[in-house]
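Annual report, structural modelling task.

Input specification for the nicotinamide-adenine-dinucleotide complex:
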Amino acid sequence: MQNMVILGATGSIGASTLSVMVNNPTDFHVYGLVANASVNKMLALCITHQPDYAHMVDESAAMELKSLLPRNCITQVTTGTEALKALVTDSRTDTVMAAIVGAAGLVPTFDAVKAGKRVLLANKEALVMSGELFMRTAKASGATVLPVDSEHNAIFQCLPTTVQAQLGYCDLAASGISHILLTGSGGPFLSTDLTTLSAMTPTQACNHPNWSMGPKISVDSATMMNKGLEFIEARWLFNTQAEQLKVIIHPQSLIHSMVQYRDGSVIAQMGNPDMRTPIAHCMSYPQRIEAGVEPLDFFKVGQLSFCEPDFSRFPCLRLAMQACEQGQEATTVLNAANEVAVDAFLKGHIRFTDIADINYRCLDSVQQTRLDSIEDILQLDKQARATAESVINALN
Ligand code: NAD
Ligand code: MG
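The model returned the following structure:
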């Protein structure tokens, strides 16, 4: 029985994780649930799953949750950074699902890695911001990091077990691998007339053709910044050189990524686009459990198609690939700028196409900084957010 803590329990990945847990009640125990401020969602989760702990980052949300919990609910409500750290590093916590959205997920995810936990990593932003330090810390602490992001999970499944055991430090070429083929659907605007892109609304941007996800990652999929962040994520997980990574648009989202070998073989991982598959894979690895996902029916699949990404349609993808070349300062700044820009877009303050402009201008301002610790990274993240805010103010 694994005791699990879910960071980002009230979100889309949180819900999928709990659904897999319900399907496998003898293997997993809901030890802790963590969310930001959604009291009603957390209350419902506490009543259904009876976790030992429910942690709300927002203090007043924690107070409210405490007052609403029915008497027969065993859950202890906590708040504050120390309590969160205590929960993820608790000796009774075996596994941490890292599914807080954005930079806010970095510190608790990093704490879990430092404590040597089994970390199921959905929060790609943590690797974008701190990849080198993150993987180095995991190696030192003996933490097991397993990729939940569907593409990285697919790549992981297509790699030899010897490479799987050396995540972050593997030598792909020495294992006969020539390329990692990172696939992406192209999102809702893959064939939208380019002249109309600037008028696209948050509702249109969040209307992903294949996946149901939280608002931030949905907008990132529409700009393909998501694939850019995943490019950086892959760089750290699989220790890749830029030329070993290729991005391929595959609109049906049935192949979730591929690994190409020196001898001409290409190994792909396929399945219906449902995050419960990679989540279940990480939860039970190296075993397999019931995920509750409908099996892929090849007689209904029809066509599988592929094309090259067009950077004039998806400038954010190119920016992220450039940032990856530039290094950790650039990827941290880009991540922060993008979070601020996406938030402003979702609030209706800027146009869809402004997101790429803001990211470009912030990336242009990157300077060499020493990034030796999480504190250094958080400081740079804060500065980049301020830069992005001022770029947005200048736009309006
Ligand atoms: P979501 O918006 O649905 O949920 C976000 C969760 O994070 C919520 O529980 C929220 O309470 C919590 N949260 C937000 N701000 C917080 C803060 N400051 N402190 C603590 N908790 C906070 O997001 P999602 O779609 O579930 O995505 C979560 C992460 O997983 C993201 O990093 C995303 O890139 C990654 N991911 C998601 C999917 C997907 O299908 N949804 C796929 C791959 C990767
Ligand atoms: Mg993904």
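Residues 2-147 form a domain with the Rossmann fold fold (CATH 3.40.50.720).
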